[in-house]
Amino acid sequence: MQKDKFFREVENVRHPNESLVKTHCSYCGMQCGMNLRVNTSTNTIIGVEPRYDWPVTVGKMCPKGVTAYQQTNHKDRILRPLIRDDASLKGTKEGFREASWDEAYDLIAKKFVHLQKEYGKDSLSVFSGVSMTNEKCYLTGKFARVALGTRYIDYNGRFCMSSAAGGFLRTFGVDRGSTLPWTDIHETDCLFIAGSNTAECHPTSMFRVWAVQERGGYLIVADPRETPIARRADLHLDLRPGTDLALANGILHLLIQQQQVDETFVRQHTNGFEETKELVGAFTPEVTSEITGVAKEKIIRAAEIYGKAPNAIVMFARGIEQQQKGVDNVSAYTNLALVTGKIGRPKSGVATFTGQGNGQGGREHGQKSDLLPGYRKITNPKHVEEVSAIWGIDPKDMPKEGVSAYELFERMDQKDIRGLYLLCSNPAVSAPNLNFVKKALKDLDFMVCADFYLSESAEFADVILPSVTWSEDEGTCTNLEGRIIKINKAQEPLGEAKPDWQMQVELAERLGKGKYFSHLKTAKDVATEFRLATKGGNADYYGATWEKIDKQDGVFWPCKDEEDTGTPYMFLDKKFYHPDGKAKICALPYRPPAEEPCDSYPLHLTTGRVVYHYLSGNQTRRIPFLYDMCPDPYVELHPNTAERYRVTHDENVRLLTRRGAGTFKVKVTEAIREDTIFVPYHFGHKEAINLLTNAALDPISRMPEFKVCAVRMEKLERKKVT
Ligand SMILES: Nc1nc2c(c(=O)[nH]1)N[C@H]1C(S)=C(S)[C@@H](COP(=O)(O)OP(=O)(O)OC[C@H]3O[C@@H](n4cnc5c(=O)[nH]c(N)nc54)[C@H](O)[C@@H]3O)O[C@H]1N2
Ligand SMILES: Nc1nc2c(c(=O)[nH]1)N[C@H]1C(S)=C(S)[C@@H](COP(=O)(O)OP(=O)(O)OC[C@H]3O[C@@H](n4cnc5c(=O)[nH]c(N)nc54)[C@H](O)[C@@H]3O)O[C@H]1N2
Ligand code: SF4
Ligand SMILES: [Mo]
Fold this sequence. Notes:
Layout: E1 18-24, E2 33-39, E3 44-50, H1 63-67, E4 82-84, E5 96-98, H2 101-119, E6 124-128, H3 134-148, E7 153-155, H4 162-172, E8 190-194, H5 198-201, H6 206-214, E9 218-222, H7 228-231, E10 235-237, H8 244-257, H9 263-269, E11 270-271, H10 273-280, H11 285-292, H12 296-308, E12 312-316, H13 318-321, H14 326-339, E13 349-352, E14 371-372, E15 376-377, H15 381-391, H16 405-413, E16 419-423, H17 427-430, H18 434-442, E17 446-451, E18 463-466, E19 475-478, E20 483-487, H19 500-510, H20 523-534, H21 546-552, E21 555-556, E22 583-584, E23 603-608, H22 624-629, E24 634-637, H23 639-644, E25 652-656, E26 661-668, E27 676-680, E28 694-697, E29 704-705, E30 709-715
Parallel strand pairs: 6-7, 6-16, 8-9, 8-12, 9-10, 11-22, 12-13, 16-17, 17-18, 23-27, 24-26
Antiparallel strand pairs: 1-2, 2-3, 4-5, 4-18, 14-15, 19-20, 20-21, 23-30, 25-26, 25-30, 28-29
Helix pairs in contact: 3-19, 3-20, 4-14, 8-11, 8-12, 8-14, 11-12, 16-18
This protein binds ligand MGD (2 copies), iron/sulfur cluster (SF4) and molybdenum atom.
């Protein structure tokens, strides 16, 4: 890989009893390069240092990354399997006892077999996550389809990347989160960033973002809040939550009017321009301003800057994607790049900020209800045949398409699903409409949870299996660029913890499916089978061997064979993945959010993240520094709104939606719209804002509308001093 201007060669002084293990952070899609420091006398992880030789992040890490190593030998680790004998304690931390692996496996096998005999194969479900390596994600998909034989598998990426995936698939015919490498970002002339709190959620992207402005380029940010990146932007489009589709259409309207259309590109490489032109004709600056609440002048200026920039990158994240029209939002913003031809070349393109560490790879290889490895479709008989041949099963035995993550809970509620194998996710905090989801979990006949800490979701389990942290196993992840990287093992598993792939191999044996799994003895064995299973698919990893990843600083997929060095840039040949080779410009009528403010619920509620915590917080709330920096959730409120409700900073208020309620501390800040409030979602039990959020699903991606619903705020009566 070519080194960019930020590259630095650094040599550190070492302690004699210390070795370094080259790896990447466990948390977000940036996958910052780090060395884990290992004490060679005790063989334990004792610290971390950033890797200056990692080309994407060149020595940068955030507060989560520099403390991530503290997870491995943490006092809260689950060291042995746990079994709950008294079902009446479900939904609490109480009532678990330690057990041997044999006893735990026997119990799981007995219960799973019983449920399937009684209620059919599809009475079992798997809910997984993408903090796991590609190999683990791959095997989880195979475990569900082959060892359990159920159609019901889905994963937390449905709450994360599914709208980006849906939008890219519709527009490009393939879903790779970025059309270009991150090392191009600082060299572009305009960054248009929508719905991404980049400085807190992908902090190590920021040196490239600032570098654009330092070179005289422009930064445009669309966000209802004045996030750190919005504050320093050349233009902050402070839109009403849920109105991106109008904003993107309005900007496209102006680009067309200002003759910024790349006619040749549009004619040769796209479909759909004429219909789209007609549709956006109605989105005049006046109309767009009326819907979005953004001043007309700002909308005009945004189109001018983006249109005139020789190179530009459109970037977005969950702010636009976690909506009931998330897929349309993605396609609408992507339209800007297609119409102006600013795609398929260096320094120009489209990228989503992939969320979880393996949010890209984990969505490609079969954890999603409709997918098989290599982005194959479970509804495509040819694809089913190809994968069945690798797995050694009869294609007739491949389960059918299942349902999305939130719909799994609906099936549980309807008693179609009776059993759950949950791993690498904590939906009792992170799923929407939590009162409903928690009841569905509690009512299950039998639930297994694999985690290394006892999560809020594990409280509903009958059996807890101790998994390892990322530092106790090896494998690959795919970062937000689409670059496959290698995670290395720095320490032996603590206690009796095991990697998820090993648990699944051993459980498959207990379920009588050993012949499909027992050849997998090491993570590398899984990797070999995994690469083969992706061969020929759109997300082809076959040529991405561990040796090549190490030699090249990662390998961008697709990478088809030994000679192939991978694909840092997508669509350089202007060939998109639809059968006619063209990309689709989409005509997308505006529609409002599922819930609009009304007299009873007069404000918009939006939710998201802070820099100190990661997702459900089950990992980061246990790290002392991170907890101290942010021990509780809060509600961000504009000073004028605070005045209207007669509440002050640090006072508790009650928030209510049609689904639930909670009490939160007020944080008064000018960095938010007056009609909108924001609460971070990293907290459990009564502090979970997801008790209030709306599970309205996008019709294509089945993504819930985490980013906008209608809320009422009530001042709590002050207790009288007696
Ligand atoms: N510190 C930290 N970093 C993380 C994570 C974490 O939990 N903590 N999680 C990782 C994961 S899995 C993910 S998915 C990413 C998420 O990364 P982001 O998507 O950047 O994070 P969010 O806070 O969910 O939302 C981003 C922004 O969307 C804005 N927003 C809300 N509604 C709208 C809207 O209608 N339109 C627009 N344009 N903007 C809106 C919010 O104000 C917020 O600033 O972060 C990753 N990185
Ligand atoms: N209101 C609101 N809700 C949201 C969002 C939002 O913006 N607003 N964002 C959504 C998004 S983008 C996401 S990604 C989801 C994430 O939501 P979750 O899936 O709940 O996220 P995590 O907290 O990462 O949960 C992972 C769990 O698995 C454990 N774990 C980590 N690694 C491993 C492993 O290798 N094996 C096993 N077995 N366990 C492991 C961790 O300890 C943790 O308990 O939340 C979604 N929920
Ligand atoms: S930016 Fe993401 S990958 Fe990098 S250190 Fe922070 S959490 Fe880890
Ligand atoms: Mo995410």
